Fold this protein.
Amino acid sequence: MSRRKFSERDVLAVVHHNHTTLLCYRCKKPLEPGQDIQREHLTEIAIGGADEPVNCAYSHRACHDLVTNGPPSTSAGSSKNRIAKATNPDRMPALVSESLTIEQKRERKASRVHRPMVPVKRASNARDIRE
């Protein structure tokens, strides 16, 4: 007779049944049965994170959504933003420039327009202007 494998939901039910408190990774509030709970990867799989238990945590759906999508006003700092930066070389010019050969880097540097710094004249009255 083979043993039945438990789903994550079953394991969470056993944890609760044994009076063990499991906290949300993000807000640190208790995770209760019946709440919308999600498993999240601490380092996203898309940017090299492992699909292993050591890289996972449980969070409320709302807490996990906030990390995944960012706050309503912006997506900066969200998981989607980090994945986009890591997978799109146009958004990470430093990574692209590191892949250039030494000759290409020299050519790029030589083609830049160098403008000499010009001092800005600031004066509170006419006598303070120096040339």
Notes: The first strand starts at residue 37 and ends at 41. The radius of gyration is 27 Å.
